[in-house]
Every structure is written in C-alpha cells, then in structure tokens.
Amino acid sequence: MMVGVVRTYLELRDPAQFRPAAPLPPTARVVERPSCSPAEYRRLYAAVGGPWHWRDRLAWDDATLAAHLASPDIALFELLVDGDSAGYFELRRSGAGSVEIAYFGLVPGYIGRGLGGALLSEAVREAWRFGGARVWLHTCTLDSPHALPNYKARGFTPYR
Hints:
The protein has four helices and seven strands; from the N terminus they run E-E-H-H-E-E-E-H-E-H-E. The chain is an alpha+beta fold. The chain has a seven-stranded mixed beta sheet, sandwiched between helices.
C-alpha cells in the first residue's frame, strides 16, 4: 500500500508577520554548536528525527557530514533543559537574504511541555541574525502533528 506524503512549504517574509511564543523557561537555554562533530550531529538528528522517519543525513559519511557542518552557510543550535539535550535546529543560508530552518524539533520526552513554540521563536530570531530577510521551512505529514500548527502560530504562511 502506498502512503501519500504531503509536503508544505512556509515562509516569513517580514518581521511584522512573526508572532513569538512565550520565552523558554529559566531552566532551558539554546546554545550554538559551531564545531559539532559528525557523531554529535547524528545523536541530535536521530534523537529528534527518529520518530518522524528522518533518515537522509544518517546515510552521510563522516567526511560529507563534517564538510556540511563546517560550511559558513550552516548554523546549528541545541536546546538544553536542565543541562539535558531537548532538541535542536539547523539553519541554512539558501540564497541572497534567504535562510531555511532546515531541521527543527524536540526530543520526544520534551514534546508537550510548551517548548516547541519558544524554540521555533529562537530559530526565527537566529535565522534573521544569520542574514535572513526571508525565513522558510517545510514540513510534511510524517512530521509531528504539532509542527504545522506551531509554524502557523508563529506567523509562517504556506507558499507551496
């Protein structure tokens, strides 16, 4: 049986569109990971993406992944709650003034704690600091059922 997957592309074209969520709780912080190793990246990617069938990056060898992470067009941030890894997001410059939130999500044990909106708000702010006049992302029907409502609640609008 073939299962149809619907992909939705969304964007923020103007900071006035952005509707930030409540801030992260005092026990949580977002840290940039400028020199993330391939092993650490795989840990984050698998912990967040495992339940949602993320597989693409797991097939990359160490050299390919290290080159990707070393690119000046990539920025990686991790959410820590009480010092524990709770999620991450990856930004990718994708053209003049355009930044993609390429990967975003929470570790399953942290879903439903009110962190998703706050983490997405941080991702948008970091995307603007990273040079984005336009911030975009995509989701699909294999992702968490909370993903699309969170994106729309922050002001993202579908464009494809």
